[in-house]
Write a structure and sequence with these properties.
5 helices; alpha/beta; 212 residues
Length: 212
Amino acid sequence: MVAVSVPRPVLALLAALAVSACASGAQLKDERAELGDFFLSHAIVVADDATPLPGSRPAEAEEWEQAIVSEMRRRLGRYDGDKLYHIGVNVQAYMIAPPGIPLVLSPRSALGVTVDLWDDAAGSKLNARPHRIIVGEAISGETIVGSGNTQTRERQMQNLAENVVLSIENWLASNPDWFPPRPESADVDETGPDAEAARSVMTPDAPAGSAS
């Protein structure tokens, strides 16, 4: 028998598929106060080495990159602080559920990524190791019988992008020491030149290859 080497991200995603139900990131709730004076300057997504699980619907690297960058703009781009941060996401493995037999053989969609956060002013990464996130699709009337039967491939990818960025927001909020509080005094200058420049040209499509 020939031993087959399975990448660790694929093994982790396979293990998570059995419990892959996830909170939905479709709706935006209140901004997380823990993020303080946060402003998203660059959003970098790399998916060139993303591994599809067996049976998954296909997806191009550019599709994952566009879906996740767009969702980071929507969810994290609403924070209007003055301190600049960059987020790098590396898509490692995914499952886009194909059509199956409802309630009998209906694979669930899931997505595994690693995330890094950089402090622009310090020019350094804040997390010691890439943070791993694995999300599944939220339970709904459409997914309970298998999203492969009820949703397009693009809709499934969008759902996973929403859920993974929600998890990124939660991860950031779990590390409040990374973010200084927002100035509350009206006398504090909230229009620093760095923040103004970033707001005028927000460039989430920074050169690929920076995510770990």
